[in-house]
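Researcher: I'm preparing a figure for a lab meeting and need a structural model of a single chain. I don't have an experimental structure, so a prediction will have to do for now. The sequence is pasted below. Please return the structure as tokens so I can convert it later.
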Amino acid sequence: MTSAHRAPGMSVRLKLTLSYAGFLILAGVVLLATVWVFLLRYVPDAPRGEPGRDQLESGVPAMHTPTRDELLQAFAPRAGQVLAFLLLFGLAGGWLLAGRMLTPLDRITLAVRLAAIGSLAHRIRLPGRRDEFRELADAFDNMLARLEAHVAEQQRFAANASHELRTPLAISQALLDVARNDPTHDPGELVERLRAVNTRAIDLTEALLLLSRAGRRSFRREPVDLSLVAEEATETLLPLAEQHGVTIETAGDQATAVGSPALLLQLTTNLVHNAILYNLPRDGTVRVTTSVAPDAVELTVENTGEPLPSVTTLVEPFQRGTGRTRTDHGGVGLGLAIVKSITEAHEGILTLTPRDDGGLHVAVRLPAAPPPTGC
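Model: Understood. Here is the structure written out token by token.
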């Protein structure tokens, strides 16, 4: 239900004010009742005894002892005045205190409204020591920062994706224009080039869909042995490795994680595929290992190759490294971006480290599957 459909009600400041005043009145009533219970009830209803002989002989008038009714007649108006004062004091003081306490909430509300209209750069930055309001403000600031970064990444990704998808379409259009303007052009060559361009567009679209699926984390989780996944990926890419003169080495123990077998296979395949393509022109090596750590399992893919000055942008979408041994399997620039997205979807950590003698060391650390419970 939106705010436009809600019935109007009292403000929180007014509710707090009435609560403060009501509590103050209640405390006054309890105090007056205590005076009655522990003091006034012991006062006699009528004067007791007669004047003493000494008082009569000295001529000093006897002291008059007030009765309970007389005390009540004197006490009740003053009690009513005190309660009235407490009511006014509670309302005024409660209104001021409630306004002061709710001031941070006004700043949070302003930030929420600005975020609702698309202003994600605004921050609350509530000063003062930590309390509930400041914890809420800090949490909201952190959420805005993550949301702003996510939106910026999505906008950058959409722009890059549009550019990448536009390229094969533009090439296809150019090929068709050439064929239309040159009737003598070999149709077989045109068909082959169109087929290659169309295949690249399909691969790019499938990669985008896979990246979106991993980002939504819409998959079923089950135990997955990374050592078996690594063996399957290396066997699939073995012909490509032989074509590029790259040797693949696999080692490691059983390492069971929890996640999607298909996505983890895609992650491993992408890493091995990149390790083959980003390698030495000949006699290159790719090492795939799995290991087990406390509460975690790790998949490591390491390859030889040219020295890499920086690896910070390799996981960004459509970022391609330098030094490919071939261009026939250039990919679509989403390999490591998909690896990063799948790793984060499995609550893991992706680490890229350039090797001193050239190449790249990639480690994927995932939470380990819990041990099976006994029957």
